[in-house]
Write a structure and sequence with these properties.
single chain; alpha+beta; Gyrase A, domain 2; 4 domains; 12-stranded mixed sheet; 4-stranded mixed sheet; 20 strands; 40% helix; 19% strand
Length: 627
């Protein structure tokens, strides 16, 4: 297996080709509607992926927000490239040892799925070559690019997709590796290493959706397949391994097809099956037919028993055909390897076979139910086209990630036909003095950062978490203010993730308000206003309710306990457990400690509680006769 990665990371520098802010928002100020069509690229030919997207004939509705302007609406030419974003891209090129190109040329990349109002995405090659080290190995870097992010998808109906313009134009660094990765584990490690370098620049965004990985994978005898937009680092490994398994399955199916007579073509006409199945008990069919829908079918000679093998493997040819049908605008297909089933009887299957002239069990068929004949024919043509190339094994294509590490066909693999130069911006050279300045001020390497964090008394695990999550800069700022490194690290690596799991929100995103809340909490802890055991509850109230420290402490019920109150509670617990103390002696320490902590947790330091309980217990044991 060979794999390569394309890492796309949003930058926190403002938008790439205008002066708008880069924050996502729910405040919509207006909207407009467009339709897009495919055009030729620099070669004069239209890209196959763009043609397919345009054929879906969608209408695109765009929501205008405060941080979008006429550039995002494609009513004004782009401004010059954001200098801060360019500097971050050049910094990454230097960290990777890449060679900056002599002249930077902005290109247009045709994309007509509606995610760009102009029908193209602007991108620029910044550097080539270089390498990244991961788990003791070095992996080549193919390119470093700077491009604009797409609009944010808000909703979709059968004929229309709604996008919001707040994300459109946010700068992305795209880092592409050479195809030198040979396992899912390696892919995850390389992605993690590149992510650490990106976060070392301190100019990248955090949170779900701010970094995405495209995975390019092939196995021997297979073909390059691109999985587009994997958002979770932990999922990279399973997507790579599952794609390798999918290609192996398709190669085996292709081998078995080649052993049979070659009778399958992509030109069989779709046959009307609505009269045959109009009274079928199948709910899959009847629900659409009652609304005036139609059922069409096509023969699939030579594919009987190969669409859904009996081993129930998650990857199978039938699913591939269904994905192509869905990409053409229908919900899916039914094929003969899974029938009778879904309410379709054996008698109905026999009638369909007769109508489609496929009586041989080695032959198969596919049927589609749709609101009208045209979308059904379009879907079945896609099914036939995919079935016709099944004998070759694995087609080159782009796939979307879905649940459990699986993927689904999206569109053909884009090629160079989609590229042409940006006509509104001139090429430019990077000033030598800018590169010199960047080289003289490169950020600390991840290895050096880990060593420095270890010098603050942090374990390698905690230091690695701070580095992976991009929290080193925050950690440094807080310990510079004389807050204890261990407590700061605990808040950032334990309490913050717990809050994110509980609320489903990104708690720390680099904004000042939350950082100020943490500062206030640490100051209150240092003054003894609450115990460190109460950090989690107090922080949660400050974040979820926007409370100041004093209000959060009162609301969490964890105000500091006086030594006198602690002594009184310990005496009460001792009085209730005299029999336990008499029989266990100092062995009663643990249960007594648990009883006391149940009443005082978060209100006083646990070490002080332990000392108080131990002193009181020693006094009791000394006065209690041995049994």
């Amino acid at each position: 297996m060979k794999a390569g990665l394309e890492i796309h990371q949003q930058l926190a520098t403002g938008k790439l080709f205008c002066n708008c802010g880069d924050e996502l928002t729910e405040e919509v100020r207006g909207e407009f509607v467009r339709a897009l069509r495919a055009t030729g690229g620099e070669t004069g030919e239209a890209d196959a992926a763009a043609v397919l997207q345009a054929s879906r004939a969608k209408v695109y509705r765009y929501q205008v927000v405060a941080n979008s302007c006429l550039v995002e609406s494609d009513e004004e030419p782009p401004h010059r490239v954001n200098p801060e974003a360019l500097r971050v891209a050049l910094t990454m090129a230097e960290l990777l040892g890449s060679r900056v190109v002599q002249e930077i040329l902005i290109m247009r990349k045709l994309v007509v799925d509606g995610s760009n109002t102009a029908g193209f995405q602007r991108t620029a090659l910044i550097a080539v070559g270089g390498e990244v080290e991961a788990a003791g190995k070095r992996y080549g870097i193919s390119s470093v690019c700077l491009e604009e992010d797409a609009a944010r998808k808000i909703g979709e109906t059968p004929g229309e997709i709604t996008y919001r313009l707040d994300r459109l134009g946010i700068p992305l660094i795209e880092i592409a590796t050479a195809p030198e990765i040979h396992s899912g584990r390696e892919a995850r490690e390389v992605a993690e290493a590149i992510g650490q370098l990106l976060r070392a620049t301190h100019r990248v965004k955090r949170g779900i959706g701010t970094i995405r990985e495209d995975l390019n994978i092939s196995i021997e005898g297979g073909a390059r397949v691109e999985i587009k937009g994997v958002q979770e680092l932990g999922a990279v490994e399973s997507f790579v391994e599952n794609e390798a398994a999918r290609q192996a399955t398709l190669l085996e199916v292709g081998r078995r097809i080649r052993e049979r007579p070659a009778r399958l073509t992509a030109t069989f006409p779709a046959v009307e099956l609505t009269p045959l199945l109009s009274s079928s008990p199948s709910k899959v069919l009847s629900s659409e037919l009652k609304r005036g829908g139609v059922v069409l079918g096509v023969p699939l000679p030579g594919l009987g028993g190969l669409l859904a093998p009996g081993d129930k493997a998650p990857e199978r040819l039938g699913r591939e055909l269904a994905d192509y049908a869905r990409a053409s605008g229908v919900k899916g297909i039914l094929h003969s390897d899974e029938l009778p089933g879904y309410g379709i009887t054996a008698e109905e299957v026999a009638r369909v076979r007769e109508a489609l002239k496929v009586p041989d069990p080695q032959d198969a068929f596919a049927i589609v139910v749709a609101p009208a004949a045209e979308p059904a024919r379009r879907a079945l043509n896609a099914v036939l086209a995919r079935a016709a190339i099944a004998r070759q094994g694995v087609p080159e294509e782009t796939r979307d990630p879905v649940a459990e590490g699986r993927t689904r066909y999206s569109r053909p693999l884009p090629g160079r036909n989609r590229m042409y130069p940006e006509t509104d911006l001139p090429p430019f050279r990077v000033p030598p003095e800018l590169l010199t300045d960047i080289r003289n001020h490169l950020p600390e390497s991840p290895a050096a950062t880990l060593a420095r964090l270890a010098g603050n008394g942090l374990s390698s695990e905690v230091a690695g978490t701070l580095l992976r999550e991009g929290l080193v800069e925050v950690f440094d700022a807080l310990i510079t203010e004389k807050h204890p490194p261990s407590i700061v690290a605990r808040i950032l690596t334990q309490e913050v993730p717990a809050l994110e799991r509980e609320t489903g929100k990104t708690v720390f995103d680099g904004k000042v308000p939350f950082l100020d809340q943490v500062r206030s909490l640490l100051t209150g802890l240092a003054r003894g206003e609450f115990a460190k055991e109460a950090i989690g509850p107090v922080l949660a109230r400050m974040f979820t309710h926007g409370e100041d420290l004093a209000t959060a402490v009162r609301g969490a019920g964890v105000g500091q306990l006086s030594p006198e109150d602690l002594r009184r509670i310990v005496e009460e617990v001792m009085a209730r457990n005299e029999e336990l103390i008499r029989t266990k002696g100092m062995g009663a320490m643990s249960p007594l400690m648990g009883d006391v902590m149940a009443r005082v947790r978060g209100k006083i330091d646990g070490q002080l509680v332990a000392e108080s309980v131990r002193t009181a217990l020693q006094g009791k044991v000394g006065r209690t006769p041995a049994p």
